[in-house]
Specification:
The protein is an alpha/beta fold. It contains 16 helices and 16 strands. The protein has three domains: about 50 residues; about 220 residues, Carbamate kinase (3-Layer(aba) Sandwich), CATH 3.40.1160.10; about 140 residues, VC0802-like, CATH 3.30.2130.10. The structure holds adenosine-5'-diphosphate (ADP), aspartic acid and magnesium ion.
Length: about 500
Amino acid sequence: MSKACQNYSASLRQAQADRRYLHIELIGFSPNGLIRVIRAIRAIRVLYLHSKINRKMKVMKFGGTSVGKPQRMKEVAKLITADEDRKIVVLSALSGTTNALVEISNLIAAGDRSEAKQKIWELEATYYQFVDDLLNDELLIAEAKKILAEHFEFLTIILKISFSEALNKDILAQGELLSTKLFCIYLEEQQIPHKLLPALDFMTLDNQDEPQIGTIKVKLSQLLTKHKDTPIFITQGYITKNAKGEVDNLKRGGSDFSASLIAAAINADVCEIWTDIDGMHNNDPRVVKTTRPIEQLSFEEAAELAYFGAKILHPASIWPAQFYNVPVKLLNTMEPSAKGTLITEQAGSTGVKAVAAKDNITAIKIKSSRMLLAYGFLRKVFEVFEKYKTSIDMITTSEVAVSVTIDNDIFLNEITRELEAYGTVEIDTNQSIVSIVGNEITETKEVMRKLFDAIHDVPVRMVSYGGSRHNISLLIPRSFKDQTLNALNTGLFGLE
Ligand code: ADP
Ligand code: ASP
Ligand code: MG
């Protein structure tokens, strides 16, 4: 039996013993005393039941690398049973799976079915090996392989159906469906009480593809009440139903968003994001060698970093936790005792905390000496972006031009064509936004001087300062990103 199960049964036994003790004490009491004791027993019973239902509830999300190897999955089982808190465990797909599914889907869309079939077989083989390494019990191995057969048969059948966007979403959902089912079988083997809560039973998007937090709240509350004695729930990150009732997803890296939405919906005590690094670092560790973890961030700071490219968090994953004031912790599955990063309303300290970068940015400049200062000109420009549901990240204006950046260029041709009605349009693709994030940084002395000293040889295309007190953003060509992040690591943090 796991430690959590043992603790759980021990506290149940203790509560039963307490009740027996009170019962024995009743014998031989006067009627008044008896009434008082009965009342006391009732009160204790209510308190006991109340503490059982309302005991701490948390969300623990494990990313792809945290479940990507059988040994890692076993470590996750230990982490989720390390305390007695009631919890919802959110899992991503095993690392590499969603990338493989994207590839398979693209091959099917391109009509290359034989290559898609080959990729499906390769992926299937890794899963059979995974099951053999994860489980010992023959019956459970057979059960797991039956699940694999069902999911891979589904992928093979898809090869024969004509491709559609809905089918693409079904393909992409297979990773999280598989990881959660395999994990539950492992928990069963370990006799850890749990329940699989299918995300498709409670996660929903509205017709603007925004999560319906109210509906998620109601549905989850019903499910939790229905299974009120279940200590551990397992669910899929990333996947959801959309407004049409089809399977959909929360975009790449979306399991963080799922976790935050669930934590907000159940008003969790904490939302733990377990990953492969010890918290949010001060710079992108994929680009800069000497980065260090940040102990504390405010929701605003974390949201800016996530939005402006810190891959550790999905860009939208902070707002649900922030809105419902649920603390978020970023923790390392490989090093569970490391402090990680705590994200709450409080920033902890002032000054620059971190730098992040977002790639694939397109800059659009509209030059119009005739119209720029005219009343209503900016509104007309923004309406074009609104029409094509394309959000703007940065904006700067001068007397004769306005420059904006976008990260979604699907409608770039249409947008350009419509903007040409207002002036000459210049497009720069392959740009990066580098954001410097911290608490009150625009009021912190020396930041601007250190910033521009560090990047004196970088061709900065746009600067955004003062839009928020937590962020200064620069637009630079993508080819200067690595140089810029490294120079800022030295210039702003003194790290070589
Ligand atoms: P998971 O699969 O657990 O969701 P991700 O790969 O999505 O993990 O996110 C963790 C990775 O984010 C780290 O391995 C790291 O390379 C990258 N990363 C980028 N920027 C940062 C940052 N500022 N701090 C920490 N990690 C970062
Ligand atoms: N599996 C999905 C992805 O790789 C979601 C996630 O990992 O958060 O994007
Ligand atoms: Mg991630």
